[in-house]
Amino acid sequence: MNGFLTITDLHAGYGAAKVLHGVSFSVEQGAVCAILGPNGAGKTTLLRALCGMVKVRGTLRLAGTEVTGRAPETMARLGVAHVPEGRGTFAPLTVEENLRLGASSRRDRTGTETDLRRVYDYFPILREKRREAAGGLSGGQQQMLAVGRALMLRPRVLLLDEPSLGLSPLVTQELFGIVHTINQEERTTVIVVEQNAHLALGIAQQAHVLESGRIVLSGTADQIKADEQVTRSYLGIRVRP
């Protein structure tokens, strides 16, 4: 199995509780991969495994280099940025302080300032509120801040965990549109875990369905969208609006 990011026979869990059971797939550089599935399927654990937050068994390779078992800070230096479910912004800090934290491992000051302007271009509302405390932002604005902070790492791989959670349909559409633009303009590889299958498949090239820690369905986004009967039998979700 070849790809920019390759996962082979991945097992992961928490102590004695095993969550992932032999997950394998690959993602090409610059592609968007959607991970779908019901609650408890192991989607969040998969993203945590990819950024080094949980112990794994199996093989992870990034751009041809094995990175299995690397610590989260090492994975971040290798260009893997994780936007967790619940956003994880630092409420007392200002918007700009939160963004600069995303670049804390970088040493290129000029590049950091350029990327700060780039994030503000993607999310103009963050520029308007850059001196305000992050805790005072709306849910949608906090999600934009979390994505913006991840972009300050200048990631090669962006991991998004339920980015639409708690957001209005209008804000969700806007956020997914920006993620699509980031992918197209920056050629950032994106892996998105999302309950809203229609939105996720709308920006993805490939998709995998997880159930009970195993991949039960894989294909291109178009194939998954076209196979609504199979998808519904596994998930009970709609892939069409």
UniProtKB/TrEMBL annotation:
State if Nucleotidyltransferase is listed as a keyword: no
Tell me which species this is from: Nocardia mangyaensis
Task: Please name the GO terms of the biological process aspect recorded for this protein, alphabetically.
Answer: L-amino acid transport
Alphabetically ordered keywords of this record: Amino-acid transport, ATP-binding, Nucleotide-binding, Transport
Q: Which family does it belong to?
A: Belongs to the ABC transporter superfamily.
A Gene Ontology molecular-function term? branched-chain amino acid transmembrane transporter activity
Q: What is this protein called?
A: ABC transporter ATP-binding protein
PANTHER family in the cross-refs: HIGH-AFFINITY BRANCHED-CHAIN AMINO ACID TRANSPORT ATP-BINDING PROTEIN LIVF (PTHR43820:SF4)
Classification via InterPro entries: AAA+_ATPase, ABC_transporter-like_ATP-bd, ABC_transporter-like_CS, BCAA_Transport_ATP-bd_LivF, P-loop_NTPase
Q: Which stretches make up the ABC transporter domain?
A: 5-237
Q: Which Pfam families match?
A: ABC_tran (PF00005)
Stretch forming the signal peptide:
none
